[in-house]
Amino acid sequence: MHNTSQAENVAEKNIHINQGTDQYLTFMLAGEEYGLNILNVQEIKGWEGATPIPNTPEHVLGVINLRGTVVPIIDLRNCFGLEKADFGTTTVIIVVKTRGEDNYERVVGMVVDAVSEVYNLNESAIENTPSMGTVVSTEYIKGLATIDDKMIILLNINHMIEVEVGKEIAQLPN
User: Fold this and answer.
1) Whose C-alpha in 5, 56, 157, 164 is 20 to 30 A from the C-alpha of 101?
2) In terms of Cα–Cα distance, which of 93, 100, 90 is closest to 71?
3) Alpha-carbon span 35 to 42, nearest angstrom
4) Hey, which residues does 65 pair with through a beta bridge?
5) How is domain 2-170 classified at the architecture level of CATH?
6) Model confidence over 6-51: pLDDT tens digits?
């Protein structure tokens, strides 16, 4: 519950719309800061667990009931091949809404270490991903942005959910 308030305060404090910019919610995962377009974010909630579903991939932790909607919960650390970590007081679920190439809308919760900030980024501030090995497959990276001397990895969340979990999640109960 405290996590939700903290995340909401960060979002409220930093949200202001500038013409020609997109807003990115950033979050921490294994010491790196990642960002995703805030238009994909439905809500942020504190980690309270998930109901496991038998025979699902290892990165699917289970499902939660979010106001009558069954939402699959995925562990991004597992998806990205990162070391497993204990969930703590800053662990949150970022509930995102994506639309795949099949035009099917998916609502998915992603467990992350902590929510960080909301940034306004002009498209010209986003650099292309260099063609070298990274923790996350570069096909899931929209680009990189440097803010206050720190590098933020911007995810193409629609593509990532579609490729990594879309087909598996589509088979989970609704």
Assistant:
1) 56
2) 93
3) 15
4) 70
5) Beta Barrel (2.40)
6) 545 444 444 444 456 889 999 999 999 999 999 999 999 999 999 9
